[in-house]
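Hey, can you fold this one?
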Amino acid sequence: MARQGLVTTVFSRAGTAAVVGWVGSARDRAAGARGLLDDSGRQGSAPSVPAGDYAAVLVYRDRILLMRDEQARVPLFFRECGGRVSAVSTSVRCLGSVTELEPRYFCRYLTGNLAQPHSDLTPFAGVHRVLGGEVVELSPTGRLRRRTLRRTRRATGPPEPTANGSGLDGAAQQLRLALENAVGRRMGTTTACHVSGGTDSTSVALLAARLLAAERGGDGGLVLLAGRFSRGELAAERPYLDVAMEEIRRHTPAVRPVIIDADDVADFDDFQHHAGDADEPHAHAFRAPFWARLHAAAAELGCDTLLTGCGADPIVDANPFHLHRLARTGALRQMTEQARAWAAESEQGLRDIVRAYVVQPAFPLAAERITALRGGGTVLGGLGTFNRPRWLRSGFARAHGYRDAGIAESRFMFGRKPEQSLYDAANYLAAPDLLSWQRARRDGFFLSHPFLDPEVVATMSRLPAAATFRPGRPKAVLRAAMADLLPAPIGGRAVKVPFNDLYARGLRRHGDELIALCRSARHPLVAEMFDVETLCRAVREARLGLGDSYSWDRVNSSLALVAWLERLDRRSGALGEAMPVSAGS
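Sure. Predicted structure:
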């Protein structure tokens, strides 16, 4: 067995496995890698895709297997030509050629911020992505035999009653057990936890502290990582952060709190570096400066895993697309009654709730087109998740399949059963992993998200709406599950201050630089793809506060693409080396 950073290599009579990340348990990576090698090597059996955060290359005498876990946190790519795979890497730019780009990828990327993890397309022609939960089988000489998707956590059929009836208490017990298991699987030798003072991150950190206290008698091994603001909107989070830190340390006094003062940080700081050096275009690169500070501190302390609270909003809250299921099964009176309750809870109108969770999932592209027509004369007016932004040239969109990409994206987000598609989409939307792979080789760790664990997702998808929805109390199941641990100020809070202040500050500080970046871009694809002046106008409108989160996401992703293309020729394959494919090597 050999261990080098995030890579664990194991050998046996059956073959060799190189695993990036961990399988089964983050604490014993060698055992997980051996188990994966042995289980996948059994003749006549379909390879399983166990839980974990990993990408793996398994080399046997008669075949080679490439696989990723279903969460798809660690990337894996292969270069293919004429049906033969010549190399494999966790870095797409190690395999691709800057002179052979794939325009269809950029159309798919620009339809929304979910495209990258679940699309086979990559920025480079001839380079493919191993999908989450996929097993790619090659011959010993690299001939591509088959690609198989193996989903392990899909829930089928209607929701099931909870173990103790359909009440909140039974649902809370199931979620608590699943979440404890998810946190336990992700605990490393030295574990860091994001702590923001919100319900989600505090829950994860408290469970991690309890596990360490039970196993080690409270002797440490846990780092609490937080960014602190003393001015602006985010300063209102500081009292909650202090309460969370105090409560966690009460359970495990030896934890190490690391609090980073972040008053001077803003979105888009050093944007060209963060967006341009990414392995592929990254829609959330604008937020990288804040996370970079926290992750640098965790790396200095030698952490080997970092747990977040990402994913809790869509996963452990009541599922609003349950209304869509009621409508399509003909339970219109029940749907209307529950929609009224949703509207009262969220302070929205009944019509808004029905449009968002019943009508739009059924006709997503048509609904967005109608909204765009009502958007007025601004560039950002009415711009939603799928319809073409005005700065994307119509000729480029037609030539390279933007409409088909939008249809594919809408089907992924809503599918035939939007209440189930919510969980699939949340895996990519809620945890974009801004730096977890871009910085992974340098930091020695990447992010892991207990709320997106397959067991947690399966648990929540089985629960009936009656057990999860409490008007006026978001994430009721999580609050009940953590009632014995969460301090009252955090367990009782209904809303959390968003990062809008950081975004507005970044646009005020860097708006002119972003416009200059677009106007000075020299990569030929930028001018072919974008009407640069219209994109600059969109930046100015966002700077003035026009638009909404959906339209700002479209601006952010386009700016990240411009920065990525501009630095494309200046980068080497430093993020990872390509591995030649040969069973005899």
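The chain is about 45% helix and 15% strand. Let me know if you want another pass with a different chain boundary.
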